[in-house]
Design brief:
Layout lengths: L20 H18 L2 E2 L14 H14 L6 E2 L1
Parallel strand pairs: 1-2
Amino acid sequence: MPKPWRIGVKPANGRFPFESIAAEEEYANWFGRYLQQSRSFGVCQLLESMGPELFDPAARQLISLHDDFCCRESNRELA
């Protein structure tokens, strides 16, 4: 997920633990706006792979998880 200021969203006012229910609701509203705005942006892009292919299944799984979460759509503008 991109940093809020890189996609034109002001940082949230509150943080966990929230001081009140109202502060928690305000944060939830902010987070919803942030998620909506962040859908247009990517945070990384695979440029090339170099070196031998990894044979360690744990390393391969970790890289796959990273790529699925961070590089799903490489055609999005980077934040």
